[in-house]
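_Full entry_
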Amino acid sequence: MKRHKRKFLFSIVWGVSLVVIGVVFLFSTLEVISIEWEMVIGPVLAAAGLLFLLVFITDTTEWWMLIPGFVLIGLGINLFTLKKPGIS
């Protein structure tokens, strides 16, 4: 029962996340909002890496989650610092 509940919660989180991302893309395309994508991609990749690490922390038998987690965090930090204005 507990595993089924967690699976249901993950499904809801992914569904809501996709809807929010879709609305943001729609507003950006319609020029309702202006987003500097170069400043957004780095933190998004780092957040995805943190999610992988969170899964590893909750279940340490999933050791392979460390690999994409650290890779995404590294890419996110690298992209964020490269695109940050004022840093040469």
